[in-house]
């Protein structure tokens, strides 16, 4: 699977985990030069507290376009640290 934004591959892995229709990429699959930490957080009742990354490609920024669960609830431990995408980031084979 590849995550692509602004014509740039920002993550790539054959080992994503699908949860609620979203592909979660292992942390080592990110091209880290395109990511920066965000101060945004949200809560999921069964996964826990999500943290976010901004994505930067070719001078453009997609704020809070990637999220992950650094310390998920027990039922979501299998995606701990894995990253998923939204806000126009395309995920495909």
Summarize the structure in short.
This protein is mainly β. It has strands at 2-5, 8-12, 17-19, 22-24, 35-44, 48-57, 60-68, 83-85, 90-92. Helix content is 0%, strand content 54%.
What does this structure look like?
This protein is mainly β. The chain has a single domain, classed as Metal Binding Protein, Guanine Nucleotide Exchange Factor, Chain A (Beta Complex). Helices cover 0% and strands 54% of the residues. It is built from no helices and 9 strands. A 4-stranded antiparallel beta sheet has the order 5-6-7-8, with no helix packed on it. Strands 2-1-9 form a 3-stranded antiparallel beta sheet, with no helix packed on it. Strands 3-4 form a two-stranded antiparallel ribbon. Strand 6 (48-57) and strand 7 form a beta hairpin.
